[in-house]
Amino acid sequence: MTAQIIDGVLIAREIESELKIRIGKLAFKPILSVIQIGDDSASSSYIKAKAKAANRVGIELQHHHLPIDISLTDLNSLIDKLNSDSNGIIIQLPIPETLLSCLTRISPEKDVDGFHPMNLGLLMRGEPTLLPCTPAGIIELLQRSNYNLNGKHVVVVGRSNIVGKPLANLLLNKGIDATTTICHSKTKDISQHTKSADIVVVATGYLNTLNEDMVTENTIVIDVGVNRTDDGLVGDCAPNVANKVKAITPVPGGVGPMTVAMLMSNTVSASEQ
Ligand code: NDP
Hints:
The chain is an alpha/beta fold. It has two domains: about 30-105, Rossmann fold (3-Layer(aba) Sandwich), CATH 3.40.50.10860; about 130-255, Rossmann fold, CATH 3.40.50.720. The chain has eight helices and eleven strands. The strands form three sheets. A six-stranded parallel β-sheet has the order 1-11-8-7-5-6. Helix 1 packs parallel to helix 8 (about 255-270), helix 2 (about 40-55) crosses helix 8 (about 255-270) and helix 5 packs across helix 8 (about 255-270). It starts with a strand and ends with a helix. The model has no long low-confidence stretch (mean pLDDT about 95). NADPH dihydro-nicotinamide-adenine-dinucleotide phosphate binds near residues 134, 163 and 205. One of its GO terms (biological process) is methionine biosynthetic process.
């Protein structure tokens, strides 16, 4: 059997069309400020993709490219200025650990990456807030593909603060109503969990974390991983997973475009406030 491919590019474009209509109703062009620190090449390519999406929907993306040795004081001064000049602000990760505290300097209502502890707290309480883009994109991807999450068992492999943990919390919220299991590098016999799942989300950043012996013909797989290999970008699933499961997201072209679309969506929501 070949799995149904869940097309993130198509669904992201659908979301962009809806955003253009919302932006058309604003009295101003939304401004998204993107802060890049250093010259990480993956960060540069992610920012390029964000700039292209911003251009398509009508958001002005302002790119602030800072040297790797910027001081925390100077960085915080820039964030203070952008808190009053922009509708949304993101800091492209990774950044040096000594600067990480700057993430909480962004006003929660401008935190369009949804990483601020205040926004994460609201998410956990099931209250409206700016949601982290990748988890929100995964929920949209499943719902818009008509996969009902109500009562489904979703196994999330990976427990990071930007993907695994917020996703598991979102899935648990009333209105989504999934039952969630979170696995990580210390989980014993991950396949015992994944084989009993309706949906498996794999977000580890390691090749072949999920193989065909860990899934069934009925599993829906969301592959969040981005691994750079000699053959190009690949996800966290072994290639033969797609020959067995019911549906799967491709890498590239699955979760990545949805993450960008949700960043645009958060920027529009922040602009509407
Ligand atoms: P982190 O490195 O922060 O977290 C990885 C998680 O995976 C950790 O919780 C780790 O467990 C767990 N893990 C590692 N190896 C295994 C294993 N063999 N079995 C089970 N769990 C394991 O990564 P991120 O969450 O930030 O990102 C994960 C992947 O998703 C990366 O490839 C990243 O590039 C990609 N990504 C893609 C996005 C997109 O838009 N497409 C957006 C964000 C991320 P432990 O905590 O025990 O160490």
